[in-house]
Amino acid sequence: MKNIKILKQQENPLFNRKEVEIIIEANITPKMSEAEALVAKEFSSHADNIKIRKIKGRFGSKNFIITAKIYNSKEDKDKIEPKEKKKKGSQESKESVTKSEESKKE
After folding, report:
1. Which residue range is the domain that position 75 belongs to?
2. How crowded is residue 94: how many other Cβ atoms within 10 Å of its Cβ?
């Protein structure tokens, strides 16, 4: 990831956040964690305070548009952003299924 250019930056005091749109040049689509780290570095913020909305790229192009929201604190982010759902095949859900099966056998 070489070139970084800020397309749009807007302050939103109601939600204690900045809404930004940046364009980067990369060979492959960046992962969400890479995009968070990139935005955190560019805006001198912590990665926990950032919510990546989308990473948009065009076929055959090396330019990607990242839309993100940068909150003032992690607490502000947790109050406003919806919680992520658990993945279907996660380890925690498997453990709870085996425990319920064991209790049925008894």
Report:
1. 4-101
2. 10
